[in-house]
Fold this sequence. Notes:
There is one protein chain. It is built from 21 helices and 22 strands. The model has no long low-confidence stretch (mean pLDDT 94). It is an alpha+beta fold.
Amino acid sequence: MYDIIVIGGGHAGVEAALAASSLKNKTLLIVGNINKIASLPCNPSIGGPAKGIIVREIDALGGQMAKTADATLLQIKMLNISKGPAVRALRAQADKVTYPKYMADLVQTADNLDLKEAYVVGLTYNKEEVTGVILENGEEIRSKIVIMATGTYLASDVLVGHSKTSSGPENQRTSFGLSKSLVDLGFELKRLKTGTPPRIRKDSVDYSKMTIQSGDDYPWVFSNTTKEALPLSEQVNCYLTYTSPKTHEIINNNLGLSSMYSGLVKGLGPRYCPSIEDKIVRFADKQRHQIFVEPESKYSDELYLQGLSTSFPHDIQEQIVASVPGLENAVITKYAYAIEYDAINPMELLRSLEAKRINNLFFAGQINGTSGYEEAAAQGLMAGINASLKLKNLPPLILRRDEAYIGVLIDDLTTKGIVDPYRMLTSRAEFRLLLRNDNSEERLLEYGYNIGLVDQERYDLFLTKEKLIKDTIEKLHEIKINPKQAINQYLLDQNKNVINEKITGYEFLKRTDINFEDLNFATAYEFDLSNDVKEEILIKIKYEGYIKKEYKNAQKLAVMESKIIPSDINYDDIPNIAKEAKDKLKKIKPGTISQATRISGVNPSDISILLVYLESRRSNG
């Protein structure tokens, strides 16, 4: 008898299993292929816009993805560095050989965690709760909680041209039976699609026709526990090229041969990561589209063609690849394909990621309708945490939208549902200036510490850093800078505005173009601070007004989040709520008034009526 069984060894499953076992639960991770634990079947990267911040949040909560990425990356850079801090995020090229191996080693050596290579074909359950799993060989394994993290392996089909093959990613077996178990339990299944581009041989590319995309010469890391960053001299280059008029001609002349346009594809693909044929049809006015040529591993001779995902037959893929500048003689080592798979409607879940219709069944990752390794890992971590908390009869960890991108992700899924695979974007977060790359620990480390996934040493280091930031800001308010000739000449030499009156160090740093080096010159006061501490202080000072405004708006949200909607509420008893709103509220069962306000079809007047009803219910005991 296990405390927790996790089905699936992808990014969601690994995070769920590691979190559950770290919290001293007897855990079983069931994987279809031990050699594919935490594999990277598509893009060989970790992070990106918003996603990079999710990786930082996973780390602050005590998850693993950030640490593994730092230990195995090929290249790392900060995106949008010239823009405001709300949109800055790290993106790394991950090594597709060493990243999964690193994760597999952790899984195989973790305390309280058993690993089993098998296929799950069903769930065991009674009227109230899930009680375990059924394996392909008929064996039943009992557990108190089951976490489903099946990725794109649930009744999946690989599509190329007009052919359809029952298969998971990278020619792995698909999983049958679980879909039927879910339907028997009453779950609504959705059919979704994703895809992957061709891979080509490194020595068959003409790099002279491409633009080099190098990493940053700065010691960036995802995890604050990482001691050494990968120097630029050891990072590998990516390359940028573009489609050509010939590429567009080939695709337009053969659209009927693509699975996407032949009618073979039934599932909906990711709106923000379309196939190359979809891009050329939808954006017919664009003369060309970017293709990023990315290395997959130091131990592989393959390159990944980011931006060239397709489901054309192999011969058409060869023509398309050869039409791209620099790829005229490229040798394809793996052909592209589309993949369809079953997913649930995530509105069937509580924000803890537990199913509403049956107890002790949690879901995480692409089965919830998301796309991306980072979104999957975040859900896996939260499912592992909340399953563990449930076993201890403690309330779940529900992150607010102003606390984490993870909070935005889960709230969007459970409140709004999905039409196509969900991808996290900065534009989805209304409080993105609060959800920055630099302050993930400030927002979330205490949660990780209180839960038990962050150790005392790391928490103490965090408290020391926070005190240093606070003390430095107080000191800056005390420091006075006079408009001396030497200071103003220094500023003029750098094309910066002079000082006309005595100001504090805080006011000086508030200027857009002023940094700590300028402050050191103006005051002869040496601040012994690390680069990350300087960055966090500068952001707090320069964006103080905007941050205060967002905090004020977030406080209003927090008030609404505190207004709990009892789970036993009967919406049919509430008069005057519109029928559409009543139907949506009954289906989604929001946990708070704040969540109810975000449901499509629930209007402010419905919320007002609901608030009055709840108040009268409380008054009447």
